[in-house]
Amino acid sequence: MNIQGQTAIVTGGGSGLGAATARALVEKGAKVALFDINLEAAQKLADEIGGLALACNVSSADDAQKAVARVADELGAPRILVNCAGIANAGRIVGRDGPHDLELYRRVIEVNLIGSFNMLRLVSDAASKLEPLETGERGVIISTASVAAFDGQIGQAAYASSKAGIAGLTLPAARELARFGIRVMAIAPGIFGTPMLLAMPQEVQDSLAASIPFPSRLGKPEEYAALALHIIENPMLNGETIRLDGAIRMAPK
Asked: Which domain holds residue 181?
């Protein structure tokens, strides 16, 4: 798909992977809407890059529906969705204080998995009604999985299962939406220099970076964004989860 002139939605667009992707899409000529629970962060970036910032809880059907409708009204119906909104809470299934908090587990699933599906269903519905492009495409949807989907560590039961759900969603969604000319992909990042990770002590960051075979450093959000752009532009990429991890395989803990 030629990105120039297309309407794109980036969830979690106020920071980290989402912010880098929003910047990259604007540089390619897209009209970009940034969805984020933190409207202040999204608005700051939107002002800088000329995008549209909207407060949105991606796990809420009503919130997301209203936000997508507003994007269609102000920027045009979206053909591109990049799901970057997510949370990462750790907790052992059986810890010192007893069993894992069920509401915490539910919250991680709601934001990471249900939120991604919620946005996927709404944007694919909007895109399915558009005229196909010269390539036959009507839309491209990218969600963010994680290497934890495959190498989940101790304490990552909620996060790993939410990201495994995204990986498991990708192929059946691609198969179902193929009749509309909508491609569905996922990216599974390894250890990236997002605000959450960069807030950790430097020695922790260095230790994590050293565990990556090559390059032995934290991934850059811009590298995620570059892969997202390539997926959008390459029409044969469909129904797959791509690891973006420097060949890391996570240890149990």
From this structure: 7-244
